[in-house]
Design a protein that fits this description.
This protein is an alpha+beta fold. 51% of the residues lie in helices and 26% in strands. It has a 5-stranded antiparallel sheet, with helices on both faces.
Length: 112
């Protein structure tokens, strides 16, 4: 069964549309809706991996509190995903435990 080259070319374009173009458009639409829905109190992750709670939002920028008393202003386009409520608190607790255990280990080494 030989397909005409024109039909093969059209089939390849249709395949590329459904495998590549359409899913990318869907992700872009979902990201745009995420950015529109951002509000004060949401917990988010930026493209750089910074996790924080939104303290202020305007048309193009969002202000994130990344630690107690530490805020950064980021472009809304730089926000990658929204985290479930309480994620920021649980992350800061686990990171403070890790820091305290590493401090304890370094003190033990100094004492030896």
């Amino acid at each position: 069964m030989n397909l005409p080259p024109e039909l093969f070319l059209i089939a390849m374009f249709v395949l590329m549309y459904f495998l590549l173009i359409r899913p990318q458009q869907k992700r872009a639409k979902d990201h745009k809706n995420l950015l529109k829905a951002l509000k004060k109190g949401d917990e988010v992750v930026t493209n750089g991996g910074i996790i924080g709670k939104i303290t202020a939002v305007d048309e193009s920028f969002a202000e994130l509190e990344i630690a107690s008393g530490v805020s950064v202003k980021v472009q809304k386009q730089g926000i990658n995903q929204k985290m479930p409520k309480g994620s920021v608190k649980s992350m800061t607790k686990s990171s403070s435990k890790a820091k305290s255990s590493s401090k304890a280990k370094s003190i033990e080494k100094k004492e030896k």
